[in-house]
Automatic annotation (TrEMBL):
Database matches in Gene3D superfamilies: 3.30.420.40, Actin, Chain A, domain 4
Reaction equation(s) it catalyzes: ATP + H2O = ADP + phosphate + H(+)
Record SUPFAM superfamilies: Actin-like ATPase domain
Family as reported in the entry's similarity comment: Belongs to the actin family.
Identification of the protein by name: Uncharacterized protein
InterPro entries listed in its UniProt record: Actin, ATPase_NBD
Pfam family, one: Actin
SMART domains referenced in this protein's UniProt entry, alphabetically: ACTIN
Organism classification: Eukaryota, Sar, Stramenopiles, Ochrophyta, Raphidophyceae
């Protein structure tokens, strides 16, 4: 997500998903942010980052432009700007930030700070160890006296999106399909038929979805349907997911006999979650279940 706001306020003025939809009408291609997208499954969406770094500057500028004009309602010529960046961002990316904000938005002043340092300052400290689990990347950054120690940064691709994919795999392995938020009545009926006639092959995990993209600087396009499906799975994770105080062991009676809690899906059906609430977040601490699911090539 991209967060924008005003200095001195406790929460951002706007939080925008970091995707842009591309809708072609005749010879013209319109750029639409997810919140304004019409409900068409085949509209492609694209994000601007790849493994924490900017991969598509055009998409990033579209999101900035939308946030400034539709959420902040400010004249950038009259306001200094603070940008946060990943602690491992290269110097070339900082130069590009400066070029855009000084030449396009004509800001009077610009300060770019490491996100880990800002997290420490927000907690009232200048020294600390900052763990940041994002969608694509999880990082641990040591901060000393307001300085992010580059050599001590640890990165992992096992992050929010990976947990979402694994949680979806666990639920669908039990024979229950997860519909996207905008599913129509006809799609609900088709999903019910598909679910009732599913077999073991349908529950096999798609390894290509969990593997990192091999082309640096590129990111696979999502469809609107896939985007809304990810939102549902993410809501299940955030609302019901828990991190266990002890390692998750399926043979442990505490997990095997755990009471199941209901979650209502967009189509009105319910999914019952027991130990699954702990199994998916456990990936952040133990990747063995992921290795079993997608093979030895898992990150």
């Amino acid at each position: 997500t991209t967060k924008v706001g005003y200095a001195g306020e406790d929460v951002p003025a706007s939080i925008v998903d970091s995707f842009v939809g591309f809708q072609k009408i005749g010879e013209q291609t319109n750029h639409i942010l997810p919140n304004d997208l019409p409900r068409h499954d085949d509209i492609p969406l694209k994000g601007f980052n790849h493994e924490g770094l900017v991969a598509d500057w055009d998409v990033l500028e579209i999101i900035w432009e939308y946030s400034i004009k539709n959420n902040l309602f400010v004249d950038t010529k009259e306001h200094p700007c603070l940008l946060s960046e990943r602690s491992f961002s290269p110097t070339a990316q900082r130069h590009k930030f400066c070029e855009i904000w000084f030449e396009k938005y004509d800001v009077p002043a610009l300060f770019i700070s490491k996100d880990a340092v800002l997290s420490c300052f927000a907690a009232g400290r200048t020294t600390g160890l900052v763990a940041d689990v994002g969608a694509e990347l999880a990082t641990v950054t040591p901060v000393s006296d307001g300085w992010a120690e580059q050599k001590g940064i640890i990165k992992s691709l096992v992050a929010g999106n990976m947990v979402n994919k694994y949680l979806q795999h666990i639920i669908e392995k039990r024979g229950q399909k997860i519909p996207p938020q905008h599913m129509s009545s006809r799609e609900k009926a088709l999903a019910t038929i598909s679910s009732s006639s599913s077999n073991c092959d349908e529950h096999k995990m798609d390894t290509t979805e969990l593997e990192a993209n091999g082309d640096e600087g590129e990111e696979d396009l999502l469809t609107y349907r896939e985007y809304r499906l990810q939102k549902v799975v993410s809501d299940i994770k955030e609302g019901m997911g828990r991190v266990s105080d002890t390692p998750v062991d399926k043979s442990d009676p505490r997990f095997a006999n755990m009471p199941r809690l209901p979650y209502e899906l967009p189509d009105g059906t319910q999914v019952q979650l027991g130990s699954e609430r702990f199994e998916a977040p456990e990936l952040l601490l133990n990747t063995a279940p992921l290795t079993e699911a997608v093979g030895a090539g898992a990150p």
